[in-house]
Design a protein that fits this description.
Elements (H helix, E strand, L loop, with lengths): L6 E8 L4 E4 L8 H11 L5 E16 L6 E13 L6 H20 L4 H4 L20 H8 L11 E7 L6 E7 L4 E8 L4 E10 L5 E11 L2 E7 L11 H15 L4 E9 L2 E10 L4 E4 L4 H15 L3 E7 L2 E7 L6 E16 L1
Length: 345
């Protein structure tokens, strides 16, 4: 029996890190299989989140790391990743989708509540329903009904995101009806440490080196620079995937990223590999928001100063600003709506 019926989702492109967001309601225990169904049908989708839009959700609490109080903080959008991890790119994508839905609802043309539940569902019997393979031009034509006005006045969207114990703010600057510049206020790092990691070759030779670890809520990142003796594993997919599984088990992290940094003539390049054990997914991501932030956080900590970095990643550039005094971290990127309101039957 197929329990995944008429699941509504959209596909967004946050700097190449293709993300599917499901608006139909689905139970948490089914989310990993539902995500796998989407990724089987759309091979370039790297991750799946489950969203709900409601202003009835109010957060009251305190950030245990910064002491900041949140009193009667209204949540615009709820996002849970299929593996329960935190994802900055997906959070920015969810904020964009919320804004598009909110604009349409205000115009009386469409309300997300007419189509979707509170936090996602998906199904896959190999058949794709209406609106499959929407071209960029078709998508733009349909969204012209909403608005195509560019704005440099930011719109703030507040989200409750898996892997973060506090609300996450995203600022949106609309460039067109389907394209946005985005900035996300990232949660603080839980710790910045260093550990000696060891990788064993097939001939029994072991190579070890100290590597920095930036622990965030919901995911940790190991930073591997091109001068590290362990950087060579980035050139062999089987080596890197074996290492990330081994090192995640050693750390006991909810999710783990290996951020491979290299010096380029035009700046700093980053190649991200991310492993989420709960969903058993490993992806060479085209961009990684939380990994980019981890690099900025580590650089500011190491140099004891505020930093602003732009990293050139396979899907494009992401920028991070880290204030050394306040500990605030902002990440800037872009999000494009690629396909809207797809249905799996």
């Amino acid at each position: 029996m197929n329990n995944n019926k008429n699941i509504i989702f959209s596909i967004l492109d946050p700097t190449g890190n293709i993300t599917a967001l499901v608006e139909s309601e689905v139970s948490i225990d089914r989310q990993p299989s539902v995500a796998a169904g989407i990724m089987d049908l759309y091979e370039d989708v790297e991750q799946v989140g489950f969203v709900g839009f409601s202003r009835n959700d109010v957060y009251m609490g305190c950030d245990s790391n910064t002491g900041m109080a949140y009193n009667n903080c209204h949540i615009d959008c709820q996002l849970r990743m299929a593996g329960g991890e935190f994802c900055g790119n997906a959070a920015m994508s969810a904020a964009v989708l919320y804004h598009i839905r909110n604009m349409s609802a205000e115009d009386g043309r469409f309300s997300s509540n007419d189509q979707a539940g509170s936090n996602g569902q998906v199904s896959s019997n190999g058949q794709v329903g209406r609106n499959d393979q929407i071209s960029n031009n078709d998508q733009a034509d349909r969204n012209d009904q909403i608005s195509s006005k560019k704005t440099d006045v930011p719109v703030s969207v507040v989200l409750r995101v898996s892997g973060s114990s506090v609300p996450i703010e995203v600022k949106l600057f609309r460039d067109s009806c389907i394209e946005y510049r985005t900035a996300i206020h990232m949660p603080p790092a839980l710790s910045i440490t260093e550990k000696i990691f060891v990788f064993k070759l097939q001939d029994g030779t072991s190579i070890g080196a100290p590597l920095p670890i930036v622990e965030l809520e919901g995911i940790s990142h190991i930073i591997v620079e091109d001068r590290s003796p362990l950087f060579f594993i980035s050139e062999r997919g089987d080596y890197a995937e074996r290492a990330i599984r081994q090192w995640q088990a050693e750390l006991g992290a909810d999710g783990l990223g290996l951020m491979f940094l290299s010096s380029l003539p035009t700046g700093i390049g980053m190649k991200p590999l991310v492993y989420i054990p709960r969903g058993d997914t490993i992806f060479w991501e085209r961009s990684c928001a939380s990994g980019t932030c981890a690099v900025g956080i580590h650089r500011a900590w190491k140099e004891a100063r505020s930093v602003e970095l732009t990293l050139q990643e396979p899907g494009g550039s992401l920028s991070v600003k880290r204030d050394h005094l306040t500990g605030e971290t902002w990440l800037m990127g872009r999000v494009r709506l690629r396909a809207d309101a797809l249905v799996l039957e």
